[in-house]
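USER: My hope is that you can spare some time for a protein that puzzles me. I am handing you a single protein, as its sequence and its fold in token form. Walk me, if you will, through where the backbone shape changes along the chain. The protein I mean follows directly.
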Amino acid sequence: MSAETPAAPGQFSRRRLQFRAWRGTRPFWAGLFVLLAGFPIMYFPYAHLQLGHLTLAMATTGGAGSLIIGVLLVVLGVSLWFQKHVRTFAGVAAILLALVSIPVSNLGGFLMGFLLAMVGGAMAVSWVPGVPSAEEPVRKDAAGTGTAPEAAGPDTTAPEPAQAPAGTPSAAPGETQPQSEAPAEASEPNDLSGTSPANGANGRHSAG
């Protein structure tokens, strides 16, 4: 892609979101503070302050020690970015190196490197990976939108018609099914022949 070709729309936003996702999975700010703490600790023991025609050398006998402390802080800061499982060790080591830099490296780079290393080390020790929160299940209706559970009410549905017993022919559509015959009486009709003892006529029925 040439320099004159504009960037694709949304590419910057996509890169920014990717960086944010990468930054959220590791102690980014702790590593940044520890990394920045190493530069003032390394720089001041070898720097020369020019005041007009006067050159003030701030080099001390602990210049080599300051260089080692600064390099170690830079390495620990980078390790916090790419090796997040060593965050506890790196944080404790950064705090110890910050304390050692006070007598060795001009009060820890005039307290600038000391404070950055202390804050970064404390953040590295206290950092823990985030746990995604479990989403509550949402009840969805047929359309796919979330709805609240409906209150229980009286059942207003009509009862289903009783099914005909097996073997009974069903009526064709549009025709009415004839009513079933009345059930047979439980007892037989009175026998008028006079032979039934239940009619109380002793075998004969009276005429008239």
